[in-house]
Here is the input.
Amino acid sequence: MPRASSLRHVRPVQPLRFPASEPEWEKLPESRRHVRLCKALFEMLRAICCPQHTVGWDQFVYFDAMDPKRKLAPDAFVKLGVPDHDFDSYLVWEEGTPEVAFEVLSPSDTPERWTFKEKLRRYHALGVRELLCINVDAKPGKRLRAWDRIEHDLVERVVTGEKTPCLVLGVTLLVGHVDVYPVALRIARDAAGLDLVLTESEAADEASAQRDAVMAERDEASAQRDAAMARIAALEKQLAAKPRAKRRSTTRR
Here is the structure.
C-alpha cells in the first residue's frame, strides 16, 4: 500500500510540532531532592512493570492532536499492554492513553509549570484512570492523595494513614523514606505495605549483602572443613603412633 505522504491532497500539509521539551529559556529548575525522588519512583515502577508495560518519566504527554499546547509532564506514568520502549514526547493518539499517572510535588524547592488545579483539569482531559500524588512538603496525613475516574469523572479518593492502593497496578502506595529523604512515595507488593519494591541502589545493596552472606557462609564452611581435616589428621597421627610404641615395648622385654 502507498504511504499517505505519497498521495495527492487538496491542500498543502500544515505540520504540527510536538517537541520533547520546552526551549532552554523556558525550563523551570528542579531541585536535587525532586529529581532523586522522581528517579526513585521511576525505578520502582520499572521494577514491577517492565518490560511488558511502558513507563515514562518527566516527558511531555500530548493529548490533543490539534493543539501542541495541550500537554502534561507527569513525574511518572504507565501505559499497560505496550512493551517498554524509548520515546521523546508521548503522543496519546499514537501510543495510547496512560492508565495511571504520578505527581511528586515539592513546592519549597521546585516550581511547577501549572497550578495543581490546572493539572487536574488536564489529567481529566487526558483520560487517566488513576492519578496518585505526593506532596513532600505537606503536613503528615495530607501528603498522599489519589483520584479515580468513575463514570467519566475524576474524583478524589479518601486516603487514610498515608497508604492507599494503586488499583491499576495492583500494588500499595505509601509514604516512606528513600535514600536520605524521609518523605517519598514508596510502592509495596502487599496490602500491608511491608514488601517494598526496591530502587536500583537498594536492589544493588541487597544483592551485595546477599553475596557477602553467601561468601561468609562459604568461608565458615571452609573453616569447618579445615578444622575437621585437622582433627582427622591428628587422629590418624595418634593411631599411627600406637603400634610403634607397642613394638618398642616388646623389644625391651
